[in-house]
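User: Could you check the structure of this?
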Amino acid sequence: MKRRMRRLSVLVTPQTFWHLARIAKMAGFGDNLGRVIDKLVREKVLALRGEEGDHGN
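Assistant: Sure, the predicted structure tokens are below.
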């Protein structure tokens, strides 16, 4: 399967880097911090979509 990818450079604090590395290790992603960022962004987008639906109630 061919994935559409874009290259991105990210500047983070040492504490954020440590947290990203820790999440990668817990999720079994090895040292692939990009996959952690993808996962966090997907979760946030899904959460925001859920909030959009709640405004009408």
